[in-house]
Task: inverse folding
């Protein structure tokens, strides 16, 4: 089930949120702490106005919520609103049983809120939040919460791939608990939200605004990742990197799987330790994955086989499982060549200037070298440039000396990360000038127009974007993953 967390300040706003997301969700969570005081007074009526089951939650600030009421008044408000037709009520794990007994004007004696809810068939979710880490005793905590007869919910913040492994192990460690909610918050936890069923979780939360760390939208969860339709037979693929969430690769592979009716999902994994990721890959049976910065070289010791391109380039961007081992291939090599192959073939490209000497640069330089193009490598570190140049019989220099190579090459290839994320707007080689006859090949695809691309456009250069390479190498990955050609009829809308 996908549960939409409702963050409107009025019940009407929340009804609109449910209606807007209705086709992608199975239930919703009404966050009382987001409602204005006047709306809180009438919130008990909310479940009758929507056609999905509703979880009632009144979250304290220490648990990531907005409620600033004293604990006594908070629980009294939760009790009053819970008289509505809610399907679930969320109560924090440290709330004592004695704190849930209230004087009710309709009854002559004190009312036990938990007992009242159970008698009405309302399920209680007992939740534990930890924004710092994944506690060492997490399995014991979950079991303790479940022992009360409630649905245990843990929302914790994994800070490493080993923490992610701990969350995915919940399914096997606590397989006897049929109903539980397991949430990994923050950047490392996003893969656990998408693959929530692999954690044994009853549901996964989503929201239109990031109501909690790592929330994706209901539409993204349901249409891009099909998280609510994954099953035991679903093949898991992914991409590993650090950072990784800038990638557009899920928008290539997941629509492709859907188009050919291939039961698979492609998920981004933020990875700090390649070794730990290979443990996770074995544990949840990942069938293949793409590799991006900074892991294109560090994955290689774990591979049983590599292709000629990987051996030559020293960079692997795709790993697939074959015959109980991992095989590394490089689709960057052929993906890079595809948009410029005709220009190399007709002699328009005889010389090239490559900015950078990382994994992407290695694929580009080797591809150009193998096709007879004379290459000069410019890099911030002269030693790294020298190493790659010596392997490929290329020339080399520092980026600082870019002005010495102005208007001298047929092709300029920009392979560095300068221009994206926190370096957006910056130029890797501002002293390099363009004549207008060059082909400017920018491997960054977000943003579309980097600083150096804007300068090249102004000079009249033909531009080849990183999106073209991304699509070409992605299609080759798709074939390696599935054994099928990428469906040509899919309109690509990667933003």
Result:
């Amino acid at each position: 089930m996908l549960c939409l967390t409702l963050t409107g300040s009025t019940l009407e706003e929340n009804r609109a949120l449910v209606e807007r997301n209705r086709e992608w969700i199975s239930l919703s969570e009404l966050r009382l702490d987001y409602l204005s005081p006047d709306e809180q007074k009438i919130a008990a009526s909310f479940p009758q106005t929507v056609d999905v089951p509703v979880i009632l939650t009144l979250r304290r600030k220490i648990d990531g919520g907005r409620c600033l009421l004293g604990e006594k008044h908070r629980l009294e408000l939760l009790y009053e609103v819970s008289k509505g037709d809610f399907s679930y009520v969320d109560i924090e794990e440290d709330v004592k049983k004695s704190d849930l007994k209230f004087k009710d004007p309709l009854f002559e004696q004190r009312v036990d809120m938990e007992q009242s809810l159970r008698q009405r068939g309302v399920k209680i979710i007992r939740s534990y939040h930890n924004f710092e880490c994944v506690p060492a005793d997490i399995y014991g905590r979950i079991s303790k919460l479940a022992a009360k007869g409630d649905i245990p919910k843990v929302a914790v913040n994994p800070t490493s791939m080993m923490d992610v492994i701990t969350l995915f192990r919940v399914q096997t460690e606590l397989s006897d608990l049929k109903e539980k909610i397991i949430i990994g918050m923050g950047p490392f936890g996003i893969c656990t939200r998408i693959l929530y069923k692999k954690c044994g979780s009853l549901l996964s939360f989503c929201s239109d605004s990031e109501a909690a760390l790592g929330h994706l939208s209901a539409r993204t969860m349901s249409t891009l990742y099909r998280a609510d339709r994954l099953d035991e037979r679903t093949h898991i693929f992914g991409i590993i990197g650090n950072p990784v969430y800038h990638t557009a690769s899920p928008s290539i592979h997941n629509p492709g799987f859907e188009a050919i009716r291939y039961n698979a999902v492609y998920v981004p994994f933020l990875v700090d330790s390649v070794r730990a990721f290979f443990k996770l890959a074995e544990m949840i049976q990942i069938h293949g994955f793409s590799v991006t910065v900074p892991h294109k070289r560090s994955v290689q010791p774990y591979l049983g086989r590599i292709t000629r391109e990987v051996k030559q380039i020293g960079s692997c961007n795709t790993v697939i499982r074959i015959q109980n081992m991992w095989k590394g291939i490089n689709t960057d090599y052929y993906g890079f060549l595809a948009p410029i192959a005709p220009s190399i073939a007709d002699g328009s490209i005889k010389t090239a200037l490559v900015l950078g000497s990382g994994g992407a640069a290695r694929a580009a330089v080797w591809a150009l070298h193998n096709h007879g193009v004379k290459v000069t490598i410019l890099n911030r570190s002269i030693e790294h440039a020298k190493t790659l140049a010596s392997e490929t019989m290329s020339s080399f220099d520092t980026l600082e000396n870019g002005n010495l190579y102005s208007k001298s090459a047929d092709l300029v290839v920009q392979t560095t990360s300068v221009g994206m994320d926190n370096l957006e707007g910056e130029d890797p080689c501002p002293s390099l000038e363009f004549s207008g006859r060059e082909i400017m090949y920018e491997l960054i695809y977000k943003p579309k127009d980097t600083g150096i691309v804007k300068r090249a456009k102004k000079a009249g250069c033909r531009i080849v974007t990183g999106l073209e390479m991304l699509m070409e190498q992605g299609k080759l990955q798709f074939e390696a993953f599935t054994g099928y050609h990428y469906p040509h009829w899919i309109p690509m809308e990667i933003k």
In short: The chain is about 30% helix and 20% strand.
